[in-house]
Amino acid sequence: MPDLPSKTLETFDNPMPERDYVIYIDMPEFTCLCPKTGQPDFATLHLEYVPDQACVELKALKRYIWAYREEGAFHEKVTNTILDDLVTACAPRFMRLTAKFNVRGGIYTRVVVEHRQPGWVAAEVVQLP
Question: Which pLDDT does position 1 carry in this prediction?
Answer without folding.
Answer: 53
